[in-house]
Amino acid sequence: MGVAKFERFFRVAASLDVDKDDLKRYQEFVYEKLYDLLLMGQATAKANHRDVLEPWDLPITKGLQERMNDFRKIDAEVELEPILQYLAARPPLDVVLSEEAEARLVPIVGGISLALALTFKTLDPAVKNPATEHWDRAKRIFDLLL
Predict the structure, then answer these.
(1) Which residues contact 50 (CB under 8 A, 6 or more apart)?
(2) What does the record give under GO molecular function (predicted)?
(3) Most CB contacts within 10 A, which of 33, 65, 122, 125?
(4) pLDDT tens, position by position, 118-141
């Protein structure tokens, strides 16, 4: 992943200074949260007797949808989408993703990324470089919601 673009994204998104040491935590965080959403989408598809996960199966909240929209604006400046395609890779599921659902993965990862950056600032408005405690708190918050 392009460390410079990763760093720039967090600077633009929430005036945060992250470094390559944060990159591993970020990748694990995004991968886990995306997988959580896909598992819930899989459950919805299976409950509706389908083996294909459609976009409407994914539990996209109003807040996540808004962050996805906000991410599109930031991405025009940062050009992070090619990197997020890598992060949108996922473990195998018991269902197949439709083309439309697959196309939503990068915007979802972008929305999760933006929500994470904004969560750091919400937890500690003065934070410049998120420490381990910030990452742990953010993860606990997301685990409560996703």
Answers:
(1) 95
(2) protein heterodimerization activity
(3) 33
(4) 999 999 999 999 999 999 999 999
Give the torsion through C-alpha atoms of 85, 88, 91, 96, to 10 deg. -90
Q: What is the C-alpha separation between 33 and 3, in angstroms, rounded?
A: 21
- The CATH number corresponding to 3-145 among 1.10.20.10, 1.10.287.180, 1.10.455.10, 3.40.50.140 equals 1.10.20.10
Domain boundaries, the chain: 3-145
Report the length, in residues, of the chain. Answer: 146
Phi, psi of 52 (to 5 degrees): -120, 125
The token pair that represents 6 in the structure block: 């990763």
pLDDT, residue 146, reads 76
Question: For the segment 73-111, what is each residue's pLDDT rounded down to a tens digit?
Answer: 998 888 887 777 777 776 678 999 999 998 899 899 999
* 2/93 Cα distance (integer angstroms): 28
